Amino acid sequence: MAEWKKQITESRNKKTKMPQALLTSNDLMSENPAWGKSLPEGPIIGKLKRHIIDLHRWGEIQTKEQAIEEIKGHIVLYHLLEDPIQYLEYLLEKGLLKAILPEIHALINVEQTSTYHMEDAYTHTLNVIRSLPQTSSPELIIAAIFHDVGKADSISFDDDKKVYHFFGHER
Predict the structure, then answer these.
(1) 10 and 18 in contact (C-beta within 8 Å)?
(2) At a CB cut-off of 8 Å and minimum separation 6, what does 55 contact?
(3) What DSSP designation does 156 have?
(4) What distance, in Å, lies between the first and last C-alpha atoms of the chain?
(5) What is the mean pLDDT of the chain?
(6) Alpha-carbon 22 to chain mean position
(7) Strand partners, 56
(8) How confident is the model at residue 144, as a pLDDT?
(9) Which pLDDT tens digit goes with each residue over 10-20?
(10) Cα 43 to the chain's mean position, in Å?
(11) Coil, strand or helix: which one is 161?
(12) If you placed Cys at 97, which of 40, 66, 92, 115 could pair as Cys (CB 3.0 to 4.6 Å)?
């Protein structure tokens, strides 16, 4: 009888056993080259851990590297919506901007010549973000951050008029 109870208990434990966490709270609250700045303690940590545990349980991810790849976009987005200026400047200072947000990094030193753009495209982007009202929606914040990302690939210079053009940068 004792053997039978032991087998049932082991069987239940196998069915209900949670997979071992691929990422811990400490992992998420630490700097990482995939996302840069650590996350603050709070509900976002639990949400991300549950997401990773579910994906692991369903067999979608198996390794810590896959877990990092899965959540890095969520963490970057969290920081961009929480304090975009501070996060972008942090990434630039740490040398991570090019790896994490290459389309934003490409705006550095992209010269502009118009009455509305007295600075390079990266500085202009920061100024646009600074001009947003505190009550801006997440969609507006993301639009402000990425509104000029096509400029680095569409720059041309008009020698006659001595101005830069960015035809099609909005695409």
Answers:
(1) no
(2) 61, 67, 70
(3) E
(4) 72
(5) 83
(6) 19
(7) none
(8) 94
(9) 655 554 455 56
(10) 17
(11) coil
(12) 92
C-alpha atoms less than 13 angstroms from C-alpha of 31 in its C-beta half-sphere: 9
- The CA distances from residue 83 to 44, 127, 133, 134, 142, in Å, are 15, 14, 13, 11, 11
Task: Specify the length of the chain in residues.
Answer: 171
Q: How confident is the model at residue 52 (pLDDT cuts 50, 70, 90)?
A: very high
List of residues 6+ apart from 61 with CB closer than 8 A: 22, 52, 55, 67, 70
User: What are the backbone angles phi and psi of residue 44, rounded to the nearest 5°?
Assistant: -60, -35
123: helix, strand or coil:
helix
Q: What is the mean pLDDT of residues 55-82?
A: 94
**CA–CA dist 62, 152 (Å, integer):** 37
